[in-house]
Amino acid sequence: MIAPAKSKKLRLNTAGVEEFCRQRGIRKLSLFGSAVREDYCPETSDVDVLAEFEPGALRGIGWNYFGYGEELSKILGQRVDFCSRLDPRIRTRIEKQLVPLYERA
Asked: Residue 22 to residues 4, 37, 53, 68, 96: CA-CA distances in angstroms?
């Protein structure tokens, strides 16, 4: 279990998250947004994640990439907004709140 916010808890299937990341060449998966703030509510909040891929991991993946959020949603039991790039206008703000969920050693 990880507690990204002091008063709310996000339950994680850590083995499932690790397997998901390993199979897709994700070297780091981080939480941001409401999942790491006090306003996180399991009933209404989604889980925002930023994925950093190993070099070449997305080569040939095609449309399958767009299913990653749905696949991770099934593992976490909550809707996931999955991204691997941040808009430059919000990058600095988001990078300050990133909480690593998985990191390949």
From this structure: 22, 27, 10, 13, 25
